[in-house]
Amino acid sequence: MTERPDWIAVDWGTSNVRAWAMTAEGAVRAEATSDKGMGKLSPPDYEPALLDMIGGWLDRGPTRVVACGMVGARQGWVEAPYARVPGHPLPAGLTLAPTTTPGLSFGIIPGLAQSDPADVMRGEETKVAGFLALNPGWDGTLLLPGTHPKWISVSAGEIVAFRTSLTGEVFAALSGHTVLRHSVTSDDWDQAAFLSGVAEGLARPEALMNRLFALRAESLLSGLQPPAAKARLSGLLIGTDLAGARGWWLGARVALMGAGELMDTWRAALQAQGVAPEEADATQATLAGLTEAWRRSQ
After folding, report:
1. Percent of the chain having pLDDT more than 90?
2. Alpha-carbon torsion angle 117, 118, 121, 126, nearest 10
3. Which of 118, 161, 200, 212 is the most exposed place for a label (fewest CB within 10 A)?
4. Alpha carbon of 261 to those of 145, 146, 183, 198, 264: distances in Å?
5. In this model, does residue 114 exceed pLDDT 80?
6. Is the pLDDT confidence value at 193 over 80?
């Protein structure tokens, strides 16, 4: 049985949930996961789903939970209103969710919003706060790869501005639900084709729609193989994203924050442009950010 934690950290996403039993010093005593993300729950389901994960960590004393992510979305447990940028990634105050378990307090970190151009984030602000806590005085651009990659400009401990794209989601949609699905039927990867696509997307972002269809035509006419077609599709989309975000990375200090294959993909794309990105682990940053939010709420 896990020793009773001083508090509990939770990262509640759309698909999955992670919880950590924490000490006051920010050390992890235990970890639990669940597939009961926001997309599967209605508001009355959240507390039972939480207790399924952390029930073994509780006793009769009060328990404080600090959470980030989609649990605070409009479709989540309770909406945690957006704070505005520029500003600190962790605005003052947490939104409390309604709980019935005696002694259980569940506070949600607000997301961040930007008016012009319109943009929002939930969960990423906590990663940024954790990154800054682990790297005091860091200024530059943070890139968080994912379904919706985010470029985040950071200066003097604040988020100045951010930019989100649909790059990952568009790749999934094109490769699974368009005519291109016939050309990218492979789990293999052609790195040279990927870098060629990155260069093409960066050089001619205005030609993206035509170059996407050309992948199918080349498959039919020139024998373009699925590993190369898949990699070039990814490269074209990432290169176009890089073209739109040129002012965020060109000549700037850049740090990649994430995990897995996406880190490899974006690292290679940036390195091909002469950028040597620093790197940070997303889970470590999330825990550091949740710890910072817990301390600020005391």
Report:
1. 94
2. 50
3. 118
4. 10, 10, 21, 16, 5
5. yes
6. yes
For residues 33 and 106, state if they share a domain.
Answer: yes
298 confidence band (pLDDT: 50, 70, 90) = confident
Token pair, residue 263, equals: 């880190």
Q: Check: CB of residue 287 under 8 Å from CB of residue 20.
A: yes
Mean local confidence (pLDDT), 215-224: 97
263 with 292, same domain: the answer is no
Q: Which structure tokens are listed for 176?
A: 């699974």
- The length of the chain is 298
pLDDT in tens, 222-238: 999 999 999 999 999 99
Same domain assignment for residues 183 and 78:
no
CA–CA distance, 233 with 228 (Å, rounded to integer) = 8
Across the chain, the runs of DSSP E, i.e. the strands, are 7-12, 17-22, 28-34, 63-69, 83-84, 95-96, 104-108, 112-114, 119-121, 140-144, 150-155, 158-164, 254-258, 278-281
Q: What is the DSSP letter of 97?
A: P
Contacts of 188 (CB under 8 A, 6+ apart): 226, 227, 230
**How many Cβ atoms sit within 10 Å of the Cβ of residue 157?**
15
CA distance 14 to 287: 18
Domain that holds residue 172: 167-280
Report the number of distinct structural domains present in the chain. 2
Identify the band that residue 92 occupies on the pLDDT scale cut at 50, 70 and 90: confident
